[in-house]
Structures are given as C-alpha cells and as structure tokens.
Amino acid sequence: MVTEAYPTQAPAAPATGGGGGLWSWISTVDHKRIGIMYLITTFFFFLVGGVFALVLRLQLSGPSKTLVSPETYDQIMTMHGTTMIFLFVVPVMAGFGNYLVPLQIGARDMAFPRLNALSFWLLLFGGMVMYSSFLWTGAADAGWTSYPPLSVQSPGHGQDLWIVGLHILGISSFIGALNFICTIHNMRAPGMRLSRLPLFTWTIDMYAFMIVAAGPVLAGALTMLLLDRNYGTSFYNPDHNGNVLLYQHLFWFYSHPVVYVMALPGFGMISEILPVFSRKPLFGYRALVYSTVAIAFLGFLVWGHHMFAVGFSEPVQIWFMLASMSIAVPTGVKIFNWIGTMWMGQLRFEPPMLFAVGFIGLFLIGGLSGIMLAIYPIDQQVTDTYFVVAHFHYVLGTVPVFAVMAGLHYWFPKITGKMLDRRLAVQSFWVIFIGFNMTFFPMHGMGLSGMPRRIATYTNSSWTIYNQIATLGSLVLAVGVLMVMWNVLSSLRSSRIAPGDPWGGYSLEWYTSSPPPPHNFDNLPPIRSERPMYDVRRERALAREGAAS
Amino acid sequence: MIDKPTATRNLRLGLILSVLGVLIFAATMIVGVIVSHG
User: Fold this and answer.
1) Exposure on the CB side of residue A392, measured as CA atoms within 13 A
2) Which helix (H) or strand (E) holds A378?
3) Do A250 and B22 touch (CB under 8 A)?
4) What does the pLDDT look like over A372-384, one tens digit per residue?
5) Can you give A44-61 as a three-state secondary structure string?
6) Are the CB atoms for A427 and A409 separated by under 8 Å?
7) Do A243 and B36 touch (CB under 8 A)?
8) For a Cys-Cys bond, which of A150, A205, A486, A527 suits A142, CB 3.0-4.6 Å?
9) Rounded to two decimals, what is the model's pTM?
C-alpha cells in the first residue's frame, strides 16, 4: 500500500512579506517567523533574568555582603521573578506553540495571523515598559507577587510601570491564547481528531484555556492596585479600610493556574520526546490527555495553599490541603505513564532525551516537596523560608531549564535546518544538571534551618555553607546555559544539515522539510492515529517489502 | 487564505472567548468593590 496524500491549499505567497531582510521579519504574520521571534526574545529575557539571579546569589554568598544595597536587591529580586515567569516561561511556550501547533495539526497558519503578530509585539512592548523603570525612579521592589500594603506604598513609579507592563503582557497572552484555541479547534487537517492530537498541542490548548479564564482576574487585581496607588481608592489600602487579603486571593486565583500554564506545555514536550527516543508508542495516550485536563481544572481550586499563613478557618485549610494534594494524582499518572513509555523501550540517550529524563527526576523532587507544603501544619512551619524557594525552583525551574531545553534540542533541527553539536549538547546537559542541583538542593536545608526568603543579607553563619554551595552552583548553571547558547549560535553557521525527520518523530511536523516552506506542507499524509509519521514509515516499509517480493 | 466557513467559525469562537474574558474581568472588579466597600 502506498501512502496517499491530501493536497493542502496551494502555496500562497510567502506570508513573511518576501525576502529575508529586517523589514520582512518586522512585518511578518507567518506563524513560524513569529514563533522564532518569540523564542529569541524570551531567551534574551531568560539570560537577563539569569544575570539578576547571579547578582542575588553573589550577594548572599556570605553573611553581611554589600555587593548591592537592600533597595537594589529588592528591585533585582522582583524583576528576576517577574522576568522569569512573565517574560520567559509563559511566553516561551507561546513561542514553541506558535511554531509547532499549526505544523502538528496540519494547518497553514494560525487562525488570526495578524493578531498573532500583535501578541508578539505586545510582549516586547510590555517587557520594555517594565524594564524602563530602571531608567526612571528604580524598578518595582515588592516582589513578583507585589502584595499590598507594600506594593500600594512603594514609592516612585517603578511599581506603576510594573503594573502597566503586566497589563500589556496580559493582553498579549490573552489574544495569543484566543488564537491557539481557535486554531486548534477549527483549523485541524482532515483526520486530525481531538483524540489524535499530539500531546504538546493538547497541553497548549489547556494552557490557552487557563490563560483565558485566569488572565482577566489578574487584570482586575492589577487595575485595583493601580487605582489604589494613583487615584485614592482603597480596595487594598488598610489605612482606608481596604482588604489586603483580597489582592492575595485574586493574585493566587490567577497565579496558581499559571503554575500549570507554565508546566503543562513542558509536560507536553516530554510526552513528545520520550516515545520517540524509546521507540515505543506513548504509554496511555488517553490517560495523559485526561490528566492534562484534570490538572488544568484542579489548578483553579487550590489557590489558598499559598495563603495558609493568613489564618483561614480549619475547614478552609483542610479543603485547600486536600484539593492541593489531589493534583498529585493526575501528575502521578503522567510520571507513571512516562516511565511506562520508557519501560522495555529501545532507549536512545540523545540530548533531548537526557534533558527529558532529567526533567522527570527533578520535577519529582519538586512534586514531593509540594505534597509536603500542601500539608498546612508543615507549610506554616516553613512559610516564607528558602524551603519554598527550593520547592518552586524544582517545579518551575525544571520546566525552563530541562523541559524547554529538551524541546529546544528536539525541535532545533526542524526550526533551523541544522543539527546541534551532539557532544557539546551532552556536556551542557551534565553541567546544567550539576549546577541546577548545587543551586537549589541546599535551599531545602536553608529553609528548614529557618532562613527567610527575600532578605538582602543575613548574619547567621550556619546558613553560610548552604549559600556558598548555592552560589557556586548558580555559576555552574550559568556556564551550562551559556554552553547551550553557544551551541545554538555556532550550529546555525555549521554544515550539519538536518533532514526533514532526524529523530524518527511521530507527529506531523516531521513530515515536512527542515525548515518547513512558508506554506508548511506540499501535501499531507492520511491521519489515522496519534502517530501519523509512524504510519507513514510503516506503509512505506510495507510498500518496499511488497515491491521486493 | 482560510475558507469562509472556517473564518466564520474562528470569528465566532474568538468573540465568545473575548466576551468571556471581559465578563471575568468585570466580575473581578465587582468582587473587589463588594469586598472592600460592601
């Protein structure tokens, strides 16, 4: 049997505006170019956020250090968290989604290409507005959570620019999410049923729904904060009978789902990579889809576990504890299914697989400390200590440093048409793995011995050794990240040409050339399962066998 | 170019999601007013 092919729409004029000049990139509405611009911009912000982190770590490398003033420390700490979450992890998923979702579902482009370009430019503009505060009166300094009353009373306009910048970023991610939902639900190729969607596309769908549902809540919370700061209202201002807890409820109603907005596409990347490098189908495709939907739903019910210390009544504490622990069930399903996928597989430890396996192990550590923090008597003991910092870096730090890196190494050949240097990629994995654990594992010890988070310095010498290891680790981690960046830049100029399907992938993006043409596909194979490329290769092999006999 | 039925479906879904977003934003503001001034 020979693979039949459905012709796609006739190749249109390049949506990039033609040519390869700067203007063609600025004016592009092509999802691949927009995806690349997202990736370049967000990785730039990742490096900036990383530099902020190094300053924080150097300041804390010993007691009573004076590398930066406490005021500067607060600003850098605030902008580190804000940059990593709102300018890197959330939008980098939009970058991968932009590039990959239309390819994975067999579409020509996103549903609203011009709106797609607007999302990207708003991301850049929002980041610039936020960063412009450094040039004026200093950046926001109330932490990435910006709790009142501190954020209401914070002097200068840094906090205002933070709020306005976040509003712009919120609009960017909202219209991006709307575009993903319309694309995934209305633009799929014939045969690409929801039950055959690649896991990465499924997770981008849930990512988008969560942004649509949660984003406007943060917009409302920030609008009230801006009004309190500038127009004399008293939503949160306790001096005028405002309610400071109102902000915390609204902020975490948005920000806990955003934990899964960041994590779910990372899970999707892992679910794409493991079966390919295990030479097996994904174990429990449906269970992984249902667990993705379950995590997205449960993510809206657990915000109160960030507020255990504010004095909820016991039934409310118990509710948030049990609801938070219940998320371990669908997350556990994912981890068991990933292990089941690798079990008895023909494992190939190529760089994407190394980063993927590293992610599973380290995310599990963060998941286990998450279970501990969901138990409110334990949480009350370690609230606002470095134990919490350790936990969320093992959960949210592993997503960019391992899952996104796995995705970068996996799809780099598709995006650029070049292969990365394998040896350097493997080396960079091990440097990152060692650096990450040196940085964040000692923070469990710091927290359990009582070191508070968000302090610019300390005098307790028993915390010194933990901090020295963490600072050394952060430098190792930085070297590892720079090795990846060097690998990316040098590979772009290398002669290692990538074929259309260098890994033996299963999803549809591997059917087209690397990089794909402006119209994505000349034709599409019939889609009969969640592994259309496996079906294509199998049918070609059967055809060859038939011809030989 | 997207065919007209798909474009219509995209527009309808996009509008529904936009209205949903505006309603959630308005509901948040109403909750804020009630909690702090109610």
Assistant:
1) 17
2) helix A376-382
3) no
4) 999 999 999 999 9
5) HHHHHHHHHHHHHHHHCC
6) no
7) yes
8) A150
9) 0.94
